[in-house]
Write a structure and sequence with these properties.
9 strands, single chain, about 110 residues, mainly beta, about 10% helix, 1 helix, 4-stranded mixed sheet
């Protein structure tokens, strides 16, 4: 499961399930219109974030606490900041964040 973060006529930035980004280049024999179709078929679409600071998340830890006689699940709330991923030679750049506990990439709009 890899995510299509951004692309142009020559290359694409793809995010994997380990939070790493790599570049995939278009083969010269593949026409440009077919390139986009191949990318959309091969990779998942990331979520889109609208917060400039990053993507808000909640993570249930699996731990429990007793608070005022009630059992409550411990959760972590936070904002994962966007990072800039780029391949200057391919003319690609994107601000994105990977939430490992959700196995999800989010790109900044």
């Amino acid at each position: 499961m890899n995510f299509l973060l951004t692309f142009n006529d020559r290359a694409a930035l793809v995010g994997d399930m380990e939070g790493k980004v790599h570049t995939v280049t278009r083969a010269t024999q593949v026409p440009v219109p077919e390139w986009e179709s191949q990318l959309r078929a091969a990779y998942l679409e990331p979520e889109h974030g609208f917060n400039e600071e990053g993507i808000a998340f909640t993570n249930m830890t699996g731990d429990f606490r007793f608070i005022n006689g009630e059992v409550q699940v411990v959760r972590l709330d936070g904002v994962k900041p966007y990072q800039t991923y780029a391949d200057e030679a391919a003319g690609l750049s994107i601000r994105a964040a990977f939430l490992s506990h959700l196995n999800q990439w989010t790109v900044a709009d």
